[in-house]
């Protein structure tokens, strides 16, 4: 069954693309952004986004080990405390298991590593990648063809 092609509706997706550009310019570390995008995409099972973000991460110098260990980040010591706080925030906002998914304890932990402005940007990052995951899953965008831009 044929689904809609995102490229054909490029103009429609401009607000989401603008949000992505704002997040990239927000001051959040590019490496942290990629880890969050990868983790949300893993949870949501978005092959296209996993293909894209893993290739971009490698092109930007991210290590294979950190990409491979991402699903088990709690057991791996290769992630900084700030990255761990971001990944926990990402998982809570992506899974949304109920009203208390984003607990006060998690907010306090995230706030220890991100100021309010950064936490807003991190929240928008998680919101944006979850939107892209859902769009690509709805469109059934095939994985494996993405080519990273030159870094």
From TrEMBL:
It comes from the Bacteria. Residues 16-91 form the Carboxymuconolactone decarboxylase-like domain. It holds the Pfam family CMD. This is Carboxymuconolactone decarboxylase family protein. It comes from Dyella ginsengisoli.
């Amino acid at each position: 069954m044929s689904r809609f092609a995102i490229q054909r509706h490029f103009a429609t997706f401009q607000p989401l693309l603008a949000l992505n550009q704002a997040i990239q310019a927000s001051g959040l570390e590019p490496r942290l952004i990629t880890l969050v995008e990868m983790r949300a995409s893993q949870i949501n099972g978005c092959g296209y986004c996993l293909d894209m973000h893993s290739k971009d991460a490698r092109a930007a110098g991210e290590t294979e080990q950190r990409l491979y260990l991402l699903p088990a980040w709690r057991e791996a010591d290769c992630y900084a405390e700030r990255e761990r706080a971001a990944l926990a925030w990402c998982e809570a906002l992506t899974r949304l298991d109920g009203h208390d998914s984003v607990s006060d304890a998690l907010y306090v932990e995230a706030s220890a590593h991100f100021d309010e402005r950064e936490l807003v940007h991190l929240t928008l990052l998680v919101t944006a990648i979850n939107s892209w995951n859902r769009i690509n899953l709805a469109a059934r965008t095939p994985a494996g063809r993405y080519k990273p831009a030159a870094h």
